[in-house]
Structure formats: structure tokens, C-alpha cells
């Protein structure tokens, strides 16, 4: 059955939602999450504040949509990197990790948005946010799972209680199952890479005079080990 062409009303509604989100993201880029204002958006669009509530239930609803949009953009960037032709599994992990850092440097406001403390709020624990956040992590885990020494054959042991929690966490993504050792490696590696990127974005590495790109590359090389070639 062919898809129905959206009506003029539906197209207008979607265009208006996109305009609201674009202006909102611009506010965040200029002043952080605290700068997001429904009233300011309405003023810029020359409409009443009440008119925006036809498209978003409120500021939290708009913020959630922006978080989901940013997560999906990150995931798409990483998926594109993973889908390229790579000479080895290690090269694929390198490409995915580089895509993560490059996206953060190109869109620091989006990076801070998805990894800000606001994500701990109940209104941002929706299925949409959880699903969107899992998508980029699954790209990373899938790439790691192809490394020769990432799975059960690596000899790494995982505490049974932790293994159970890792497995339960990953099972919610509906992705193919991965060994607990790969999941633990993924979480541990991501925290290290995320930490370096966050420190770089916030300027905390400047005092060291060490090139952040070299530090990041060293972490990735350590992760992929012998499969770097």
C-alpha cells in the first residue's frame, strides 16, 4: 500500500515545528539550555506565545524533541562512518570514534545538550530519548563486537552481577546480543572517550599544552590494540 501524500495542513504543521526547533536550537547554541524560551521563539516568529502550544505541549516537550533530534544526528553521523569501507575491524572502530569526536567539535551545543544534566530529569526519560540515545551507543558496540579480542575469547572476565545488568541493559535495545565482556568494554571505553571530548570542549586541557587530538587517538589506539593495522 502506497504512502499517502501529506496534506497542506500537515506540511504546514511540520514546517512550523521545524522552524520552532531551529530557533530553539539557535537559542541553545547562543546561551545554553537555560536560554531556551518559548516566549522568545514566539516573538521571533511574530506569533502569540499560546500559538506555539499547538505544536509543543511546553518548554520541556520542545527540549525533549531537540534532544532526540541531536541524538539522531549523532547516530546518523556514526552510522555513516561505520558503513564505510574499512581495512579492518579496528579501522571501523577508529572511524566511529573519530566521527563521535568530530561531531562534538562541529556541534558543541548539540553535544552539551544531549549530555547535559537535564537528561536526568524525569521528563527527558521518555521512550523517544532512551531509544535515540541507544542508537549511537549501539553503533559503537557493534563496531567493538567485530574486534578479534572483544568478546568471550578475549579472556576478560566480568563480575556475574555486572554481567547480568549489562545484558539486561543491552537487551532493551532490541539489537543482536553481545557478550558481557564486549558490553563492559564498550561502556568503559565510551566513558574515557567522552571524558576527553568533554574536557577538550570545555577548555580544561589547554593548560597541559598537549594536543587533544593526540590524546584521543592514543585512547582509541589502546582500545583497538593489535587490530589497528
From TrEMBL:
The record places the DNA-binding region at: 37-56
The keyword Transmembrane is annotated on this UniProt entry: yes
**What's the protein here called?**
WHG domain-containing protein
Q: Which PANTHER family match?
A: HTH-TYPE TRANSCRIPTIONAL REGULATOR RUTR, HTH-TYPE TRANSCRIPTIONAL REGULATOR RV1816
Transmembrane parts of this sequence? 20-42
One Pfam family assigned to this protein is: TetR_C_33
Residue span, HTH tetR-type domain: 14-74
Q: Can you name one GO molecular function term for this protein?
A: DNA-binding transcription factor activity
Q: Which domain of life is it from?
A: Bacteria
Amino acid at each position: 500500500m502506497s504512502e499517502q501524500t501529506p496534506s497542506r495542513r500537515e506540511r504546514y504543521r511540520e514546517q512550523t515545528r521545524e522552524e520552532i526547533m531551529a530557533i530553539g536550537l539557535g537559542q541553545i547554541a547562543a546561551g545554553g539550555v537555560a536560554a531556551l524560551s518559548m516566549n522568545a521563539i514566539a516573538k521571533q516568529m511574530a506569533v502569540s506565545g499560546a500559538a506555539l502550544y499547538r505544536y509543543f505541549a511546553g518548554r520541556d516537550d520542545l527540549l525533549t524533541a531537540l534532544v532526540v533530534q541531536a541524538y539522531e544526528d549523532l547516530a546518523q553521523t556514526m552510522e555513516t562512518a561505520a558503513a564505510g569501507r574499512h581495512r579492518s575491524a579496528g579501522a571501523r572502530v577508529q572511524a566511529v570514534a573519530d566521527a563521535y569526536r568530530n561531531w562534538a567539535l562541529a556541534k558543541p551545543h548539540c553535544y552539551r545538550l544531549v549530555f547535559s544534566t537535564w537528561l536526568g530529569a524525569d521528563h527527558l526519560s521518555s521512550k523517544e530519548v532512551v531509544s535515540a540515545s541507544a542508537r549511537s551507543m549501539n553503533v559503537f558496540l557493534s563496531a567493538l563486537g567485530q574486534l578479534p579480542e572483544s568478546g568471550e575469547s578475549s579472556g576478560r572476565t566480568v563480575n556475574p552481577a555486572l554481567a547480568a545488568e549489562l545484558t539486561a541493559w543491552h537487551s532493551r535495545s532490541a539489537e543482536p546480543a553481545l557478550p558481557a565482556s564486549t558490553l563492559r568494554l564498550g561502556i568503559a571505553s565510551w566513558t574515557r572517550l567522552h571524558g576527553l571530548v568533554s574536557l577538550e570542549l570545555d577548555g580544561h586541557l589547554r593548560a597541559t599544552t598537549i594536543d587533544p587530538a593526540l590524546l584521543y587517538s592514543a585512547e582509541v589506539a589502546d582500545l583497538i590494540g593489535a587490530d589497528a593495522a
